[in-house]
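Q: A reviewer asked whether we had any structural model of the full assembly, not just the individual parts. We don't, so I'm hoping you can provide one. Inputs are below.
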Amino acid sequence: MDTKEYIASGILEAYALGLLAEEERSQVEAMAAKHPNIQRQLQEEVESLSTFSQAYAVQPPPELRDKVLAAALKTENKAATEPTEKEKVQNQKGTSPWAVAATVLFLISGGFNFFQYQQSQSLQQNLNRTELRLAEMETQNEVLVARYEIMEENVAVLTDPNTAQFIMKGVEGRDQQMRADIFWNASTETVYLDVKNLPQPPSDKDYQLWALKDGKPIDMGIFNNLTDAQELLKVGQVPGADAFAVTLEPKGGSESPTLEEMYVYGEPVQV
Amino acid sequence: MKSKGLVTPENLVELLQQKNEAALGYLYDHYSGALYGVLLKMLKEPELCQDLLQESFVKIWKNIERFDAGKASLYTWMLNITRNNAIDYIRSKRNKNQQKNQGIDNFVYALESNQKFNPQHIGLNELVKSLPAEQQQIVQLSYFEGFTQQEISEEYDIPLGTVKSRGRAALQKLKKMFNQ
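A: Here is a predicted structure for the entire assembly that you could use as a starting point for your response.
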């Protein structure tokens, strides 16, 4: 096999990085054993990574030194020679300033990290609060804009000279304080309902609005929620009406009004 | 002839192979930081890494006769023993599906002190950081976490060919940096 081609295949890099599975590893080792130039190249890759690994150097805790040395010496110590005093002194001299430096650096950088961590935590919290507040305000704003648009439309309807007003009042036999107004815009033919005073309907019933044209009732839809009574309720369109009336009908409304259940009735206000 | 003087990089291996205790101390003082750093990078938990460091030094001391300076540098040989130790541990743990990711990256500080034995590596960290993130990832997973290319491809959903080419590109870049 061409060794140049083998080297160029990238398998040596993969070996050095530990990317290869057991089987491929042994193949590479066998190739390296056979071909000195592959061996050399492989060594170069491995040494690069060794060098690279030194970037992560961290001093172990100083007290570990004695433990490790004792453990190593315990295993096999027949040929060992006692260190001379000079060597002992030198070893100690060699170690302790670095150990101290390591500890100091560790403490400083640990403290600094903690400080940074706290700072970033508190910044993060502020940011979260601000974002939450912003979201709340955006929601509020949307609600207000929607309200404003409705109000604006209401004002436009009410001030439009083409708008006719019908004041529906309690019919005979009903409370005379009952009242609901209709605004009908002739140019858009749109009907707006303004409930001023009607009792809350029972839960199995709905109010139904009727437009009366030439004596015939036209269904203008049902309503039952009177809580938002301050706003004009856009209920639909009708080409024209002589009068409007509200009856109480079974849930969902009726095809024709139940006259006995009429609550309010009104004809156009003459200007 | 027994050397009574200084342990130096030149006579270190010879003294170690004679089981000279002072040489063992020298070995520890000069290489424990680099090996411990790699262990922390691989396993994060300081106590565990200290145990593995001790285990590795015991193996290094026991097997020092087998070290062949013609095949690798002493550090690389030691690093292999240490990494294999850690990878064995990681693999047995991964098999038990117990690997907890503890964010103790804060403990990993490169200390200047280790650069005394290899002064040309000042600023190494900066060089390494200049690798593109996807290449760093491959180095991290393979070299420090013991994943094979097959495993990286499967677990991280990266095509096998891409894993290979990224690993290769990373190494070529590192080599270039170190040989400058």
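A: Points you may want to mention in the reply: Chain A has three domains: 3-56, 84-159, 163-266. The helical segments of chain A are 3-8, 11-17, 22-34, 36-53, 64-75, 85-159.
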